[in-house]
Amino acid sequence: MKSSDFIHGSDVAWEAAGERVARQIMGYDERLMMVKVAFEQGSTGEVHTHPHSQASYIAEGKFEVTLGERTMALAEGDGFYVEPGLPHGVKCLEKGLIIDMFSPAREDFLKQ
Questions:
Q1: Most buried residue among 53, 60, 61, 83 by CB atoms closer than 10 A?
Q2: Which of 1, 91, 108 is nearest to 50 (CA)?
Q3: What CATH code would you report for 14-110?
Q4: Does 112 have pLDDT greater than 90?
Q5: What is the mean pLDDT of the chain?
Q6: How far apart are CA 40 and CA 21, in angstroms?
Q7: What tens digit of pLDDT does each residue of 92-104 get?
Q8: Rounded Cα–Cα distance for residues 104 and 39 (Å)
Q9: From CA 112, how far away is CA 89, in angstroms rounded?
């Protein structure tokens, strides 16, 4: 299980990841995955959990990020870390883009 070594965003189809949310899988092997997630203003990444470690970077926009019982507003240039099993989600306050890194790779994303 491995993506191509060089990946052009223009060659990767966006797939639905929720209402007014889309993602592009930008590289992976069994240990690591990078995903771009685009959000329209007011859209959400519903609170959920998964067994993966996740590090995320806000590339564009503003978001309200919830990690467990804590919520904080984050904007372009900010980031957050999600430990495995921690409930987390986002609300898009201004149209934006988040870069998510998962370890190990989210095989469930590849099966869709």
A1: 61
A2: 108
A3: 2.60.120.10
A4: no
A5: 97
A6: 7
A7: 999 999 999 999 9
A8: 24
A9: 21
Whether the CB-CB separation of 54 and 82 falls below 8 Å is answered with: yes
Q: Which residues of 10-36 are buried (b: 16+ CB within 10 A; e: fewer)?
A: eebeeeebeeebbbbbbbbeeeebbbb
Residue ranges of domains in the chain: 14-110
pLDDT average, residue stretch 2-11: 96
Give the per-residue SS3 of the chain: CECCCCCCHHHCCCEEEECCEEEEEEEEECCCEEEEEEECCCCEEEEECCCCEEEEEEEEEEEEEEECCEEEEEECCCEEEECCCCCEEEEEEEEEEEEEEEECCCHHHHCC
Q: What is the pLDDT of residues 34-79, one digit of tens each?
A: 999 999 999 999 999 999 999 999 999 999 999 999 999 999 999 9
**Euclidean distance between CA atoms 34 and 4, whole angstroms:** 12
